[in-house]
Design goal:
The complex is a heterodimer. Chain A is an alpha/beta fold. Chain A has an eight-stranded mixed beta sheet, sandwiched between helices. The longest helix of chain A has 21 residues. The relative contact order of chain A is 0.18. By secondary structure, chain B is an alpha/beta fold. Chain B contains 16 helices and eight strands. In chain B, α14 links the parallel β6 and β7. Classes of the chains: A alpha/beta, B alpha/beta. The interface between A and B is large, with 80 and 76 residues.
């Protein structure tokens, strides 16, 4: 296993970044914080999610000065694809609205995935940075696998030409990065090794980079209490768990677990780095993560060793 | 309402919730709990990441139900859970087997089954990671429901999309036999001169061919035509599944972690289940820290993290109670079980038994 030697700063220099990982590791918060940090630096950035049921779908929304969000929706993305790639004119809406076509898009496994991931790719032509909050492990692989499958299945036609370009981009380390996020817990760390393996098989020329989120800060001064002993065991457990990656010489960025509620006397700007308020996200956490990401982006890469 | 009462009332429990909340372990723990009260329980997980085997402390698990009763009984007394009178089975189906099984049960002849299975579209669908997980989950549930060996089924839903995709699967599959869709699928067989093949249809198919190429179209129509021959069996099976999902036999449990931003997910799910007349049985709140006792504001970052998370937890708990109170028109009360976040990992059966006992 070759290690991921790429610091987050270099990962985020790529135009298209897929944020991967097991469910619950904080992909949403990390990807939004990365997008937010890039936007704060004056780069036109779009944060992409796929059919998140609790948020509005299908429209590119402006969240703040340079930050945009698209909660990608299959049918609308398909309409847009047809408009761009098939000269159908007035017939386009009849085609995409046709019952049979709609059914195919909705029911055929893989179609939806192909359309959604294709849309994320297409956005790279309109933004400086596209940060994608991927679904969890197996399903993220299914999305890329769908592109591969249809590339094989569609003997000719437009989609084949496009999937070729899409696959080329996903494998190109100059344009695209795959960032794997994990928690300092056994299952996510192990599962991310499998995920890295699957990604390498799909895109051998573009190895992923790694980040471990919510690392409990080592604070040994607590007086004895139930909470303090929890902290001590937790810190020891995490150090033990992270050996799973260390032993594979995986190098990674670390994000600390942070207190994300207001303390009496806290100034409000300490709480968040102007993170957008969006359903399903916690602006306080995203704000703190944005600040951590910004700090990494400001560092001089050359002076900084890897872990 | 406690866990045992829910388990006694339902034959099937569907565990839903976003990834990483502990759904797989909790599903296994529910099945153990049912086994303890004498049920013949089976836990099934639709998960390409092979997590159920790990949770059970096993190297691997097959596509067919595996009898783990002996293991469960031994670990039961070791974990101080008393006697386990029932049975405990587990399986982790793979896409390939499940979809082939589906074709075999539906196809009216061997030739037809082979024709479907040889189709390149089917071969791609039946790979792992093809996106056919929801269909596979439905197939597994139907197969287990008819399996006389089991009287309690715990289904850990596919982690990748939300439970809605799973619930929508039978209806989407049935829609294939809708007249409008069928006419398209049959159009090549009818021939271009047939008056049933309208100019509009030809135009739509022409545009599709421009996108996908003619090779795929041929395979698609062949696949579609073969599926059409299974119509009667297929439609019946999907109707049965829809009926099962809404029946008293089946209930849904949501597993979640105490983050305030996740409460919308609960609200969304409860609304959806209600609208479809599915049965919502309650919430398991996992990774809670309330048991650590009151923590005062301090300068220690570690303690501050725990204090904040406890604060969120109380807020989430209040909101869950609010949502559950609004459901009280039914005579039963929904389950609310809290499980602690421990500073250690869950490993093997004994830990699962502890989890099973804590589920109240």
């Amino acid at each position: 296993m070759v290690s991921g030697l790429m610091p987050l700063k270099q990962t985020l220099e790529r135009r298209l970044v897929f944020v991967h990982g097991k469910g619950g590791v904080g992909k949403t918060a990390i990807s939004l914080a990365c997008a937010n940090a890039l936007a704060h630096r004056g780069l036109r950035t779009i944060w992409v999610t796929f059919e998140e049921p609790t948020r509005e779908q299908g429209h590119e929304m402006n969240l703040s000065l340079n930050l945009y969000h698209l909660n990608c929706e299959t049918h609308r993305a398909f309409e847009q694809y047809v408009d761009t790639h098939l000269p159908l004119g007035a017939f386009a809406r009849i085609f995409t609205g046709n019952g049979f076509i709609r059914y195919l898009v909705k029911a055929a496994p893989g179609f939806r995935e192909l359309i959604l991931v294709g849309k994320a790719w297409d956005l790279t032509h309109h933004y400086d940075h596209v940060i994608v909050d991927m679904p969890s492990t197996g399903y993220a692989i299914a999305m890329f696998q769908a592109v591969r499958n249809f590339h094989k299945l569609f003997s000719g036609g437009r989609v084949r030409q496009n999937t070729e370009k899409v696959l080329h981009t996903f494998e190109d380390p100059l344009t695209c990065a795959h960032l794997i996020v994990a928690l300092p817990e056994e299952t996510p760390l192990r599962e991310s090794v499998d995920l890295a393996h699957a990604l390498r098989e799909l895109f051998p020329g573009n190895p992923p980079s790694y980040l471990v989120n919510r690392v409990f800060p080592d604070s040994l001064r607590e007086p004895a209490s139930l909470a303090a002993s929890f902290i001590h065991s937790r810190v020891a457990l995490e150090a033990q768990n992270l050996k799973i990656w260390d032993e594979l010489s995986i190098s990674y960025e670390r994000m600390e677990r942070v207190p994300d509620c207001t303390r009496p006397g806290d100034s409000p700007d300490l709480k968040s780095d102007s993170a957008p308020a969006l359903k399903g996200t916690n602006p306080a956490v995203v704000g703190l993560l944005t600040r951590a990401v910004s700090k990494l982006l400001d560092e001089d890469t050359k002076q900084r060793g890897t872990h | 309402m406690n866990t045992d009462r829910i388990l006694a009332q339902r034959k099937i429990i569907v565990a839903s919730g976003s990834g990483g909340v502990g759904k797989t372990s909790i599903s296994a723990a529910l099945a153990l709990r049912a086994a303890r009260s004498g049920r013949r329980a089976v836990v099934v997980t639709i998960d390409p990441a092979k997590r159920l085997a790990n949770a059970l402390g096993l190297k691997s698990l097959g596509s067919a139900p595996c009898d783990l009763t002996d293991l469960a009984r031994k670990s039961c007394s070791l974990a101080g859970a008393g006697e386990c009178k029932g049975e405990f089975w587990a399986l982790m189906p793979d896409t390939h087997h499940s979809l082939e099984e589906l074709v075999d049960t539906l196809a009216t002849s061997r030739t037809l089954a082979l024709r479907v299975k040889d189709n390149p579209i089917f071969r791609l669908l039946s790979q792992e990671f093809s996106g056919a997980n929801e269909y596979m989950a439905i197939q597994r549930l139907a197969a287990l429901e008819n399996d006389a060996r089991f009287d309690c089924i715990i289904l850990d839903t596919p982690p990748n999309r939300n439970v809605l995709a799973f619930l929508a699967a039978p209806r989407i599959l049935s829609q294939f036999f809708d007249e409008k869709i069928v006419r398209f699928v049959l159009s090549p067989a009818l021939g271009p001169a047939n008056r049933l093949v309208t100019a509009g249809m030809k135009k739509v198919l022409g545009a599709l061919e421009k996108l996908t190429g003619s090779g795929f179209m041929t395979q698609l129509f062949d696949f579609g035509a073969a599926l059409l021959e299974t119509r009667t069996g297929f439609t019946r099976k999907m109707d049965e599944m829809l009926e099962l999902l809404a029946s008293e036999k089946l209930g849904f449990l949501l597993v979640m972690t105490p983050q305030p931003e996740k409460v919308d997910e609960l609200r969304f799910l409860v609304d959806h289940l209600r609208r479809n007349r599915f049965h919502f049985d309650g919430v398991v709140l996992n990774r809670t820290l309330g048991y650590l006792g009151e923590i005062r504001p301090s300068d220690s970052p570690g303690l501050e993290i725990l204090r904040c998370e406890q604060e969120h937890e109380r807020e989430v708990e209040n909101q869950i109670h609010g949502i559950q109170r609004s459901l009280r028109d039914e005579e039963r009360e929904a389950l609310f079980a809290k499980l602690p976040e421990l500073a250690r990992d869950v490993h093997g059966m004994e830990d699962l038994w502890r989890l099973a006992l804590a589920l109240d």
